[in-house]
Amino acid sequence: MTIAAAAFVRRAEMLWLPFPRPSAGRKETTMPKLRHIAIAAEDPYATAEFYKQAFDFVEVRRTQPKGEGSSYGVFLSDGTINLAILRFGWDQGPGLDFRGIHHFGVLVDDVDALTDKLEKLGATCFARRPPGVTTFYETKFHGPDSVVFDITDHPWKGAAPLPTPEEAAKEKAPLLQSAAP
Fold it and tell me: 51, 85, 147, 155: which has the fewest Cβ within 10 Å?
């Protein structure tokens, strides 16, 4: 096995270790899943129409401008990932004039535990879920290279839920095998 392949296997094994480790009575956790991509667009409605026609994505939600500082747009889905095409009303890092892939979102089992882990790894949380909120909320971070990403424990509309522990084990087995020599 090459050094690069060995490093990949070690990294893959780290990615699929459950975190946090299940405590007594707590269900086993699964690997977080990419379930959301946001595109900053000048005209989110026209941009969404392009992706609907190009890829047969399904529109699952549409929002209208609500005044200064509010973001609005169209949310599409392929059945697995939620694609938000938005005109951003508040700057999350790249600037309000930025156009293109804005951020990505990851569905996780435990937002609080992963927030602690991400901060220990050096990510900066700039929009934390308020205490007591149990509904959908995107906890937002700046990661390496100032890349914006968010995490949530409630799936985005049109996004697939996390797999069961059994499904997750089946998903990762071929990935680990393909990394072996």
Answer: 147
